[in-house]
Amino acid sequence: MRKGKIQKKILLLLLAGLSLSMSRSPKHHFRVIKDLQKEWREIDKKTLETTIASLYKSKLVDEKENKDGTITFILSHEGKHAALTYDLDNLTIARHLWDEKWRIIIFDIPEKKKSVREALRHHLKKLGFKKLQHSVFVLPFKCRSEIEYLIEFHNVRRFVRYIEANHIDNELDLKHKFGILQ
What is residue 154's three-state secondary structure? Predict the structure, then answer.
C-alpha cells in the first residue's frame, strides 16, 4: 500500500471516529468500531507514525495533548474537507473566467519512484493540465487545494513545486489549447 493511500485511509478512519461521536445508535457504534479495528490492524505501525507526522505537517490533522499525557489526533477543518470532498477517481478542477494567472506544477520525482511519477502525470493530465515539458504542467484555473491533495495522496511534497505566474512566453498557444482566447 502506498503512503498516499494510507493517509487517505487515516483521514477516513478519523472521520469514522467523528461519526461515532455524532451517532446515538449503539448498533451503528458497534458496526463502525468493528470496521475501524480491522482497518487499523492492516496498517504497519512505523508507516502509521510516518503518515500521521506527514498529515500533521500538511495541516490535515491537529493534535491535542490530554491531561494524562496522551495525544489525541483530530481532523482539522481542512482534513475534514479533504476526507469528505476528495475522491481521487472523480477529482475535477472547476473552470472559471481566467484570472490571467497560470498554475504551473514542476516535479522532480526520483527514478526509484517511477510509478508515483507516472501516476502524478496521469492525474495532472486527467485534471486538464497541459504538458510544457516532461515534468512541467500548466493550467489557467484555480487548483491549489486539488494539487495539495494530489501531493499528499502520492506523498511527494518535497519533489513538487506549485507556481502561479502572470506570463508564459508561449501564452498565445496555451490560451488556444485551453480555449481562453480573449
Answer: helix
